[in-house]
Amino acid sequence: MLSPTFSAGIVAASASAAASVLIILSQRWHGKHTLDHDLDGVQKFHTTAVPRIGGMALVFALLATLALCQPWAFDLLPTAQLSIAALLLLASAPAFLSGIIEDLTKTVSVKARLLAAVSSALIASWLLGATVDELNIWGIDTLLAWGPLALAITAVVVSGGVHAINIIDGFNGLAALTVMVMLAAFGVLAWQAGDELVTQLALLGFGATAGFVLVNYPTGRLFLGDGGAYFLGFWVAEIALLLLVRNASVNAWQVLSVCAYPVIEVLYSIYRRKVVRHASPGAPDGLHLHTLVYRRVVRKFLRDDACKPWKRNAAVALVIVPCVALAATATVLAGDTLLGSVTLVLAQLLTYLLVYTRLVRCRWGARLASGGHGTTLHAARAQDMVNERDLLDGPDYAMPQKKQA
Fold first, then answer.
1. What confidence tier does 37 reach under pLDDT thresholds 50, 70, 90?
2. 3-state class of 239 per DSSP?
3. Measured between alpha carbons, how far is 336 from 322 in angstroms, rounded to an integer?
4. How far, in Å, CA of 404 to CA of 367, rounded?
5. Which end of the chain has less Cβ packing within 10 Å, N or C?
6. CB count, 10 Å around CB of 301?
7. pLDDT in tens, 89-129
8. CA-to-CA distance for 359 and 177, rounded, in angstroms?
9. Are 51 and 34 in contact (CB under 8 A)?
């Protein structure tokens, strides 16, 4: 017989899948407001309009699960755990609503959504005590004893996590499967630490995301949208914080190692746009790692299929998510020491930079084709800019009607 903990996760998965199917089947009535008709955007790789309100299915699933787990229903979880999960859902409201409103109206500014994410972080800090109190960095941990600084760092960490999941939400299943890997890792770490609450929260989030994936992947019939991505990013970030503040056996670098891929992606995107390209950090472009994987790897090795136009789109997750899972597994097994977790974070950062550079330059290292001689960093960067312009001017952007579903 399944334990109540796993039973609650199955309820969340079932409710999420049912809500996702309902959204898809009813799109003729709400499609005017919910379909993503923008097929020409620089980050768009689908050929038909798709509902982008998958976040509603996730939130509905957790609300339904909390209701069904009450003592007057199936009585699956302790009342204390249900209350904390409900407070976490309440705290997520500003971030989630800002994303959903953006999905429906396309009128919410980046700054407004960032402010909403910060608000959610501060509400969670107030309601649940989810406030960063250590980062395992000498000197910084002492400063975190000052409340205002701790709150500011918490707001940055959580809002950054919220937007990191949105950044990697570019291809079918990529963001949702990455979230499932991270939540599974956090659930195992919490279970090892004997933290039943965080284990349950991770399992609830895992179940709700799994139900969405069952419907979304591989064909991409429903998108997370900004609302779904923000909600999942908030849920993951808060579970990471609760795991850290409630368990002395877990260190900050271990938590970072589990989340390294989306964190590195968002930080490098800011660097690439602001420092290298002198553009707004919030300006969209087609130079994320997942986009490069699609253009340089998937399109090279996977033939286009007119009968299944979503195959190439879905293949991106099959390339990236196993790497994320491998890193998360290594973190669970070998990241319990500070040295081990720092090493794993640095290894993931180095791997990301090497792979990204390889995909942009179509060769390893900083050597150019002219004569095989080494080149200066300036010349290498100039060549990268040329390669990036080639990517942005390529056929997927020049002919958006050819993009994959």
1. low
2. helix
3. 22
4. 33
5. N
6. 10
7. 999 999 999 999 999 999 999 999 999 999 999 999 999 99
8. 23
9. yes
Q: If you search the block for the tokens 């004997």, which residue do you land on? A: 194
CB within 8 Å of 24: residues ≥ 6 apart: 51, 215, 221, 222
| Residue 361: band (very low, low, confident or very high) from pLDDT cuts 50, 70, 90 | confident
- Residue whose entry in the numeric block shows the structure tokens 């999905």: 103
Residue 7 and residue 166: Cα distance in Å, rounded?
Answer: 29
245-284 in b/e form (b: 16+ CB < 10 A) is bebeebbbbbbbbbbbbbbbbbebbeebbeeeeeeeeeee
CA distances from 170 to 25, 135, 306 (A): 23, 30, 21
Q: Residue holding tokens 């579903």?
A: 405
The identity of residue 12, as a single letter, is A
What letter does residue 367 receive in the DSSP assignment? B
Structure tokens at 259: 């989340």
CA 168, CA 152: separation in Å to the nearest integer?
A: 25
And the tokens for 83?
């209350």
Q: Residue 18: which residues within 8 A CB-CB, separation 6 or more? A: 211
Would you tell me how many other CB atoms lie within 10 Å of the CB of residue 188?
Answer: 18
